[in-house]
Every structure is written in structure tokens, then in C-alpha cells.
Design goal:
Radius of gyration: 24 Å
Shape: elongated
CATH architecture of the largest domain: 3-Layer(aba) Sandwich
CATH class of the largest domain: Alpha Beta
Oligomer: single chain
Strand content: 15-25%
Mean pLDDT: 96
CATH superfamily of the largest domain: Zn peptidases
Number of strands: 19
Distance between the termini: 39 Å
Helix content: 25-40%
CATH topology of the largest domain: Aminopeptidase
Number of helices: 14
Low-confidence stretches: none
Strand order of the largest sheet: 7-8-10-9-13-17-14-15
Length: 461
């Protein structure tokens, strides 16, 4: 059990969670002293608003947290593990109102990256409410996903990222193998070209899990452990966060762990392309023409558009296994952030039903996605005079759509496919979302996979 949660048998202080229109009723239940205290503190029930309740002798009697005027969200509870007194233990008085949301928000807000220094303080702990078991799993997965993204490239290169895949497989009865060396050059040539300049050679990690008769879901993750931009070198400022450029790989591992822990009736094929986009004498160059696993040739218009070169070979490999669903995740474009900001991963798919299900899953999981257009009218922008296509557009517009259109060339038309362009980072700390690596889309995609299985079963596919 994580340090932010407590066993139901432990003694705990009462935590009242109330919406704005329930404050008066709570005041009556607390009695004259409690009601007077809430008035003194001007408690109005705003989302996340918190008041400690004193005992007559000066001790701590409990606390009240506001849920706002709408339905409960995890973010109302997202700061409590750090704002309530360190080391205290709490129990929701009305857990049926927001038990799962409380556990999710509390746990997400309690995260601290502690690999290289001790946590700043012990978190306040929450007794897990009934019915919050899946939320607790989501929190554990988010902590591990964030740890991977936050780990600096000096400690997480291609070999270590591939090792994370094999460790996950070992923990859940899955099988895993790591492809490296000449086998990567032969089987994943575009991916290999991206990682060729680094002394830490590229790898492809493959995880397989599930019943052979279950529908196959393929997950592909961009695992660029550090991105200098290659010979099209990034400026120093944008390079500072490039340890997070393997966020797509971390996210698909989080989705896979969730699926395995929930025992969803699917078969998983998880592919992680683990590379470092470095600069050396054998770095790939602007103007180079690369071959790909799918047989298409790609002219390199910019070496900093490397993530799509990693993913195109993974998508081709996944397609060879004829999955029922293919999902890829990548910190692919800054253009997606310009369009949607840091909080909304961009979803691209030509499948309207898949898009609707993904958006529904994201809202239900408090992990929203936003669909952007896969506009085929821009496909010609990727034309090349020397190869089948270029890896960047001839025009400085619609960058996120262009990235998705590039990947689309490597996915057979008959496959259900979704591409998720994520930021995988929180620029500043907010309730439930501490600054640093973020497990964006993990809950949404795990829920989507569960919905896909149900839909497949209904259609008899």
C-alpha cells in the first residue's frame, strides 16, 4: 500500500466532503460550536476549500473539504495529502458520495519524486473508502509512470527503459523480449537511424500478455530517452525537459499495467522504441533517405521530428499481428500544445466511433482527451521529390495533424487506430498534479480498452 493510504482498521479523523448547497446541513450536524467555527472561517464549500475543525481542548476534531457546485472531482481532494497535518490519518464520513474520486485525487496529489532525495514531508493518509480499489490501482500506476518520466537520462537510457518493460512483464506473468544490435537495424531501420548516434544503442522492447483467443490490442510508445534534436539541434531552453520525451513509452506501460492488474479480457502487444537522439559523427542528417519496416522510404526534412520515425516502424510491426485495436502514444509535437495547452492530449483517428468512445472514457476517468482533425487535404504537404514521403511538412502549419498524417501512412486502412499526442508533464503544481512528469491518458486509454472489449463482445467480433 502506498504511503498516502491507510488500512480501514486504523483509527482516523473524520473528513467531511460537502458541496456548496450542503454546507448549511453540515453546520447543523456539527452542532453549535462546529457551525460557529465554519462561519468564523467563512467556509463556503468551494472546490478544494479546506477547514480544520478544533476540539474544545485545542486538539484536532476533523476537517471539512468543499466539493464546489458540481459533481465531485478528484481535484477537490488533490491537495489534502500535503495541506492536512503531516502524518495524520483521515476517513471520509460519507464515502459513498465521492469515495473513488477522493482516493484518486488524494493519491495523485501525494506523489513526490524521491529517487535522489528524501520526501519533504510525510503525507497525510486516507483510509481507502469502499469501492475505491480501482482508483488505488490508478494511483499506483500513475506514481510508477511519473517516476519513469521524471528519471533523468543519465539514469534512464534505452537499456534501462527496455529493462522497465521486462520488469513489468515479470511482475504480471507476461512475456518480454528486447531486440537490439543488428536486429534493430534490420527490422526497425528508421528507429535505428534515430538512435545510431548515441553510444547507448537503440532497443525495441516487446511485451505480450493475455489469452490467445482474446482480442489483440497493440500499444506503441515513443521512448526517446533524451532528445537533443539531432543535427537540427534544439535550443538549450527546450532541451531542458527532454528527459520526458520517453513519456509516450511510460504511458503505454502504465496502460498495460492497468489492463493486466484489472484482468481485462484482452491480449496485449506492447511495443516500446527505446532510443536516444544524440549528435555524433554517425548521426542521421537532414536530407538523408531512410528505409522503414513497412517498405516506404522517408526523406529526413528535420532530425528533430524523430518520434514519428520511431513510431512508424513500431506501427508496421504491430500491423503485422492484425490487432483489433492499435493505440500509440508520443510526445510528438509542440503544435499539439499550441492548439490544446498542456492538459489535453490530442487524439487523432479516422474512426468516429473510436473517437467518441475515447472521449467518453477520458471524461469518465477524469483524464480528458480532445480530438483534432486528421485532415487528408494536408497529406500532400509530406510529399518528397526523392522518397515516398518526407518526415516534416513543406508548410509551417498544422504540425500536430501533419505528425498524425505521417503515422497514418504506416497503418493499414482496415485497422482501428488511434494516435495520442501527449505533453506528459505538469509545468506547475496544482491539486493532484505535482510539477513534473504526468501519466496523461493512462486512465482514459485503459478505460477505452475495457469499453472496446465490451463493444467487440456485443458485435460478436
Amino acid at each position: 500500500m502506498l504511503t498516502c493510504f491507510a488500512d480501514p482498521a486504523e483509527p482516523a479523523l473524520p473528513l467531511h466532503a460537502v458541496a456548496k448547497d450542503e454546507v448549511a446541513a453540515l453546520s447543523e450536524r456539527l452542532g453549535a460550536a462546529g457551525s460557529a467555527w465554519l462561519r468564523t472561517m467563512r467556509f463556503g464549500g468551494a472546490t478544494g476549500e479546506t477547514v480544520l475543525l478544533p476540539e474544545a481542548d485545542g486538539g484536532l476534531a476533523g476537517a471539512v473539504v468543499g466539493l464546489g457546485s458540481g459533481s465531485a472531482t478528484p481535484w477537490a481532494f488533490g491537495a489534502l495529502s500535503t495541506t492536512l497535518p503531516a502524518g495524520t490519518t483521515w476517513r471520509l464520513v460519507e464515502p459513498h458520495l465521492a469515495g473513488a474520486e477522493a482516493a484518486l485525487g488524494w493519491g495523485l496529489g501525494a506523489y513526490q519524486f524521491s529517487t535522489f532525495r528524501k520526501p519533504s514531508q510525510a503525507p497525510a493518509r486516507l483510509v481507502l473508502p469502499p469501492g475505491s480499489e480501482e482508483a488505488a490501482i490508478a494511483v499506483e500506476v500513475a506514481w510508477r509512470t511519473r517516476d519513469l518520466i521524471n528519471t533523468p537520462a543519465s539514469h534512464l537510457g534505452p537499456a534501462e527503459l527496455a529493462a522497465a518493460v521486462t520488469a513489468l512483464a515479470a511482475a504480471h506473468g507476461a512475456t518480454a523480449r528486447v531486440i537490439e544490435g543488428e536486429a534493430v537495424a534490420d527490422g526497425f531501420p528508421a528507429l535505428h537511424a534515430v538512435g545510431a548516434a548515441s553510444p547507448r544503442g537503440p532497443r525495441v522492447a516487446v511485451l505480450e500478455w493475455g489469452d490467445r483467443d482474446a482480442p489483440l490490442v497493440a500499444l506503441c510508445g515513443k521512448g526517446v530517452c533524451f532528445d537533443t534534436g539531432g543535427l537540427d539541434l534544439k535550443p538549450s531552453g527546450p532541451m531542458l525537459r527532454m528527459k520526458k520525451d520517453m513519456g509516450g513509452a511510460a504511458i503505454v506501460l502504465g496502460v498495460a499495467e492497468t489492463v493486466m492488474r484489472l484482468g481485462l479480457p484482452v491480449r496485449l502487444l506492447v511495443l516500446v522504441g527505446a532510443v536516444e537522439n544524440a549528435v555524433s559523427g554517425n548521426a542521421f542528417r537532414p536530407g538523408d533517405v531512410l528505409r522503414t519496416r513497412a517498405g516506404l522510404t522517408v526523406e529526413v526534412g528535420n532530425t528533430d521530428a524523430e518520434g514519428r520515425l520511431v513510431l512508424c516502424d513500431l506501427l508496421a510491426f504491430a500491423a503485422e499481428h492484425h490487432p483489433a485495436l492499435v493505440l500509440d502514444c508520443a510526445t510528438l509535437t509542440g503544435a499539439a500544445r499550441v492548439a490544446l495547452g498542456p492538459d489535453l492530449p490530442a487524439l487523432f483517428t479516422d474512426d468516429d466511433a473510436l473517437a467518441a468512445a475515447a472521449l467518453e472514457a477520458g471524461l469518465a476517468a477524469h483524464d480528458p482527451l480532445w480530438r483534432l482533425p486528421m485532415h487528408d487535404g494536408y497529406a500532400s504537404w509530406l510529399d518528397s521529390k526523392v522518397a515516398d514521403l518526407n518526415n516534416v511538412a513543406s508548410k509551417p502549419m498544422a504540425g500536430a495533424t501533419i505528425g498524425a498524417l505521417f503515422l497514418k501512412r504506416f497503418v493499414p486502412k482496415e485497422l482501428r487506430w488511434g494516435h495520442i499526442d501527449v505533453y506528459a508533464w505538469n509545468d506547475a503544481t496544482r491539486p493532484g498534479r505535482p510539477e513534473g512528469g504526468e501519466a496523461q491518458a493512462v486512465r482514459a486509454l485503459a478505460r477505452l480498452i475495457g469499453m472496446h472489449v465490451a463493444d467487440t463482445t456485443r458485435r460478436g467480433a
